[in-house]
Amino acid sequence: MGMRRLPLPSSPLLAILGACLLALGAYAEVPWLTNFEDAKKVALKEGKPLLLDFTGSDWCPPCKLLHKNVFETADFAKEAPGKYVLVMLDFPRTKKQSPELKAQNDALQRKYAITGYPTVLLVDPKSGEAYGRLVGYANWDGRKFLDKLETFSNTPEGKSGSTAAAKIHAAMSRNDFYGTCKAIDEAYPKDKVTAALNKALASLRIEPKNKERALKYFDEALAADDGSKAQAIKSLRVQATGAPDPAAKPEADPKKTAEAKKLEKSA
Fold first, then answer.
1. SS3 119
2. What b/e sequence results for 41-73 when a residue is b if at least 16 CB atoms lie within 10 Å of its CB, and e otherwise?
């Protein structure tokens, strides 16, 4: 006699469990490729840009947060594969990689001037040029990250901006302040205020104790400003260096104030 199979009871709990299993399945289906040339062929065929994730999967805390809070979310799993060809370029410390894969990733790291992890690039598969660059993890969730990617444009201006950003990051990673300034000037040839502010912040990052140099560039930004950003620049200047607001009036000396009042009365 065969065993009778009882029907499963219908309940909200089963529906919830089913939804969770479907969601988990969606995460697993996100198609990350690891071979760059194969990914490029797919991108050209499907007319999509490449999304390159330079990561240190087994040692880099921000990389792990990016994967957990962005790449493993339902929003990303649902939307990203339809817009981008996803390529993971890993630089692990304990995981084993084939010599071919390691050589490929090292070559791409040099080509795109990757100086920190994680770095996410949007790349035109035809030209191989990057037109979007995000470095680090900025507390994104899946939706915010996707919206941020939408701000990049695959245009000559977008590619130029990404190249300039790469040069700035590369110079800063070498603690080369003057190289950083040169790259900033190339990135902002007509925006003297933004250029000066970036130099001030770069100076503090490369040499935190050199407040005098940073203040010099903050003051350059104030001098170049038309007045519309003055308050924001002063606020950043005070916050970044601890120096007093240049427009603030010095506190009066109580003794001198009392003497002045006496002179006024005797006059």
1. strand
2. ebbeeeebbbbbbbbbbeebebbbbbbebbbbb
Greatest Cα-to-Cα distance within the chain, rounded to the nearest angstrom = 122
**Is the separation of the CB atoms in 87 and 52 below 8 Å?**
yes
The residues near 40 (Cβ < 8 Å, ≥ 6 apart) are 50, 125, 128
Bridge-based pairing of strands 85-90 and 50-55 is: parallel
Residues in contact with 1: Cβ distance below 8 Å, sequence separation at least 6, in sequence order = none
pLDDT tens-place string over residues 3-18: 444 344 444 433 433 4
**Looking at the whole model, is its pTM more than 0.70?**
no
- Candidates 260, 233, 261; CA nearest to 247 is 233
Residue 74's pLDDT is 96
The pLDDT confidence band at residue 247, using thresholds 50, 70 and 90, is low
Determine the Cα–Cα distance for residues 7 and 25; give it in Å rounded to an integer.
Answer: 25
Helix, strand, coil in percent for the chain, rounding step 5: 55, 10, 35
How many whole angstroms separate alpha carbon 12 and alpha carbon 18?
10
Residues forming a β-bridge with 88: 53
Q: Looking at the predicted structure, is the pLDDT value of residue 100 above 50?
A: yes
Instruction: Give the pLDDT band (50/70/90) at residue 184.
Output: confident
